[in-house]
Amino acid sequence: MALKKDAAVVLFSGGQDSSIALAFALERHARVFTIGFDYGQRHVVELEARAAVRREIASRFPRWALRLGEDALLPLDALGRISETALTRDIAYAVAESGLPNTFVPGRNLAFLVLAAAFAYRRGAGVLVGGMCETDYSGYPDCRAEALEAQVRALRLGMDADLTLETPLMRLTKAQSWMLAERLGGDPLVELIVEHSHSCYRGERATRRDWGYGCGACAACELRARGYHAYLAEKDRPGA
Ligand code: ZN
Q: Which of 7, 40, 59, 88 has the fewest CB atoms inside 10 Å of its own CB, making it the most exposed?
């Protein structure tokens, strides 16, 4: 099956990384769909952030609004039921014996890719785009390029379709991914992502900080704050 190389499906959670991946896809591709998964995350705020980021991008970037197509939010509660993690159960964030944080849902990105590929196939879209990042502090094995490339190869064979995967953030630090956002949409895009994307594991949106909303203490907030401040420091460097 021949799929369109100028049509993309973005794996979009409403977080910082997938929001930047969405902007990247909108800059590159003529038609862009988004897909997200509801697997019993404790925080409805994450799902609300998806709608807010899409809405704000469409209203502030008319050239992208023309390209932004339908959004699909698929229920995936099976994933939550087989995974006892801090994202889906009412337990505190911690680092498990495996060395991975207990927010890790085994194989999550691999499962997402299967469903995103089926969705893309049905819409004739040949490109999948995701915000996965190898340089993440947590080292989730299903964020690594090698695992994702193997999965996409399996999907190409299993669907007999010429799908490709773009992961623009794969080898970027968090500061570099903010710089990518700035290159794509200038300060307005950076501000939009700070204001509307969501990262905090505790689902806190009561307190606004310079890097966005969050508790300021969980691992996701720490990573986001550190990355944003490193970006600001880079930006202010003479000659940067
Ligand atoms: Zn937090």
A: 59
